[in-house]
């Protein structure tokens, strides 16, 4: 599911966020991208990226938990039932 996701890596020179496919990292220990804004080559360590990915996944899990909590606390109304 995450293989087609992209993550924004901020350029260390100009701060421009560059989107990278998660897939590119899962196969390599590091990846090099060219900043779309200033053209500088940005080397991204997979280890650093994995930490980012882990925090993204954690955020997603928290969102899912929130959504579950929200639907659970929703009181059933008369309209929800089909007779
Ligand atoms: Zn840049």
Outline of the structure:
The protein is an alpha+beta fold and 83 residues long. 41% of the residues lie in helices and 24% in strands. The chain has one domain (2-73).
Topology:
Elements: E1 6-10, E2 17-21, H1 22-27, E3 30-34, E4 41-45, H2 46-73
Bound molecules: zinc ion (ZN).
Zinc ion (ZN) binds next to loops.
Tell me about this structure.
By secondary structure, this protein is an alpha+beta fold. The chain has one domain (2-73). 41% of the residues lie in helices and 24% in strands. It is built from two helices and four strands, in the order ββαββα. The chain has helices at 22-27, 46-73; strands at 6-10, 17-21, 30-34, 41-45. Strands 1-2 form a two-stranded antiparallel ribbon. A two-stranded antiparallel ribbon has the order 3-4. Strand 3 (30-34) and strand 4 (41-45) form a beta hairpin. The longest helix is centred in the C-terminal third of the chain and has 28 residues, at 46-73. The mean pLDDT is 82. It binds zinc ion. Residues 11, 13-14, 16, 35, 37-38, 40 line the site of zinc ion (ZN).
- What is the helix fraction of residues, given as a range? 40-55%
* Order of strands in the sheet with most strands: 1-2
Structural class: alpha+beta
Low-confidence residue ranges: none
Distance from first to last alpha carbon: 39 Å
The main sheet comes to: 2 strands, antiparallel
Q: Which features characterize this protein?
A:
single chain, 83 residues, alpha+beta, two-stranded antiparallel sheet, 41% helix, binds zinc ion
């Amino acid at each position: 599911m995450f293989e087609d996701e992209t993550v924004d890596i901020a350029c260390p020179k100009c701060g421009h966020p560059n989107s990278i496919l998660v897939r590119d990292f899962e196969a390599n220990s590091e990846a090099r991208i060219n900043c779309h804004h200033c053209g500088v080559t940005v080397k991204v360590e997979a280890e650093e990226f994995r930490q980012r990915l882990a925090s993204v996944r954690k955020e997603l899990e928290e969102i899912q938990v929130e959504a579950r909590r929200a639907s659970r606390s929703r009181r059933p109304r008369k309209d929800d039932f089909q007779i």
